[in-house]
Amino acid sequence: MLYPTLNEVEELLKEYQMVPVFYEVLADYMTPIRMFQALRKEGTPCFMLESVENKDQWGRYSFIGINPKSEIKISGKELEVDGVKQEEEFKMSYLSDLIKKYKSPVMEDYPKLTGGLIGYFGYDMIRQVEKKLTNVPEDDLKMPECHLCMYDEIIAFDHLANKAVIIRNIHKGDNIKQKYEELEDKAELILHKMERPVSLSKDRFAPAKAEVTSNLTKEQYEANVKKAKELESLGVHIFTIKDMAGLVKPYAAKKLISALKEELNIPVNLHTHDSTGNGVSTLLMASEAGLDIADCAIGSMSSMTSNPCMNSLVEALKGTERDTGLNPDELTELSQYYARIRPIYKQFESGMDAPNTEIYKYEIPGGQYSNLLAQVKEMGAAEDFEEIKGLYKDANQLLGNIVKVTPSSKVVGDFAIFMFKNGLTKDNILEAGKDLSYPDSVVEYFEGMIGQPEGGFPEELQKIVLKDKKPIDVRPGSLLPDEDFDYIAKGLKENFYTENMEDPDILSQKTLSYALYPKVYEDYCRHFEAYNDVTGLESHVYFYGLRKGEETTLKLDEGKYLIIKFIDMTEPDEDGYRLLDFEVNGSIREIKVLDKNLEVKTDRRVKADKSNPAHLGSTIPGTVGKVLVNEGDEVTVNMPLMTVEAMKMETTVVSTVNGKVDKIYVKEGEQVNQEDLLISFEIDE
Asked: Is pTM beyond 0.90 here?
């Protein structure tokens, strides 16, 4: 729809030299850079500008101009218009007179920039105003002092409304009706130009000299390169290959990057991990093929499950055409700093001390490898890690061989551990696993809550995981309700009040944290209530505690300190608790602490009888999260009853029967082991 109307344009031209006419189109599948790349012509001046109005932090509009009506270049006294040097000398009045001819009305609710002179004024233009500046520097750039273009047609991309506004100026003296009616045809032409077809050269996939093995067929490989081209056509700025497991081998990297560089016009970035030990070699071969960006880690923080070593790559490329220009000595200094810091966090590392080429078989991402090991240790199954790695591969295949990047890699890890704990395999899961409650991450995956995988979900497995739940087939974010930030802020003040919440900026930060990660933020608040602010502790004290006889100083406020010294501790009791003695500013304090490093031998909990359908046991060891029912409540099959949490994995326990809750054997916050009895039922006959 055109705005203003033809009659309104005719009336406005009685007062103004020109009037902008606007044509809006929905642009939810476009981006400004996508429009700009599709519409620009080589050799023709064009522009793309961002705008920020009033005190906004982000610009509402991006402006694009691709076909100037006129072009002006100024160098000293020389004036060039549309490629023709003018006889008269340039004067600043020439520009002011030109601008007066382009007086136009401002339309409410539409972009304020609708055309006119757009370009640049170089520093040397000051001589046009300050006549006393007589020295003329050498023109080493061979650029005009001023380069301006007059645009009668521009496109404004409205980020707020996801619309493209095509703007055309009608001047006094134009054939008004003709120009007005042409705009709709012009808009259709612009839209057509932005729908560029994706083409691939047929000989792109000629056999490489090196023999390369791949977990993709030739057809899948070609489809992925084509998809990269399609993503570029949608307006992505950088194409990144997320090789989280380090599966891209050196010669394969050269072939892949060569194909992408020939087909794409945007930078290509390779993010890979060094679990297999081939990371630097892969980046070198990718560099030979024209890779634009390589993700690396500084020397002392690199390799194994981390990224390839930046120091090594910089030295390898030094003196070549792909020299990075980075200073090796400065990188060494940075590496030495982190080498001193890293030992403090040793307990969180993966335990991989050398390259592990079996990753090519299991396809476990680098970050996921360390997380998976931590989960396995938490559940007391560290000695079974090799078996669980094999199940990781099986779990990945059962889920549909999905792209494994956070959070999808966690889904595979949670599923593998669940299979191990419940004796499930890829062969028996559809039968043996049909009545089990699956980890929430796996349920959410099959619901479609992290997106739709390429090729869809495995339907049989989806049915037994979701039970009676219905999956979604739309973008998960489109289902999110509007967030009530005032309600969240009120709840935080009521439940987790601290004095600094009276500061609006701090309260806003806390509210946003809760909105993004409600459960994590609640856990943080409860930790803060229990232990106060622990950020002032030295890192090694926080992670490992004080050694006997060691003391540390904790700053409470300006001039106010606590000097804490660890004196001694008792042997653990049968429940694993020790008494610890501390000296705090000279006074002796005693506290009782559970030693989590010990395996408590006493387990007085009743075990579920697997042969008794009225018994419901825990499928994993962990902590009881929320209990959702009370004794005496009516329950139905697949009704949620409680949650059990292990490290980074939460499982919703659902009813396996129709009936009534007879007895609940656990409370929120209590530890349970696998097969501990959680609930017993009175089953309907």
From this structure: no
CA 604 to chain centre: 45
Q: What pLDDT is attached to residue 201?
A: 42
CA neighbor of 437 nearest in space, from 652, 128, 271: 652
Whole-angstrom distance, CA of residue 481 vs CA of residue 390: 40
What are the angstrom distances between the C-alpha of 402 and each of 293, 364, 471? Answer: 25, 12, 17
Nearest-10 Cα torsion for 368, 369, 375, 379: 150
Residues 245, 414, 242: CA angle, nearest 5 degrees = 25
User: How far from 624 is each of 437, 590, 651, CA to CA, in Å?
Assistant: 15, 29, 10
Least confident of 214-228, 312-326, 544-558: 214-228
Give residue 73's identity as a one-letter amino acid code: K
Residue 456 is classified by DSSP as: -
Q: Give the chain's mean pLDDT.
A: 85
| Sheet order of strands, 649-654 included | 649-654, 640-646, 622-627, 671-672
Q: Which residue has the tokens 């004095």?
A: 499
Q: What is the pLDDT of residues 86-130, one digit of tens each?
A: 888 888 888 888 888 778 888 888 888 888 889 988 887 877 777
CA-based Rg of the chain, rounded to a whole angstrom?
33
Tens-digit pLDDT profile for residues 433-445: 988 889 999 999 9
CA-CA-CA-CA dihedral for 55, 61, 64, 68, to nearest 10: -60
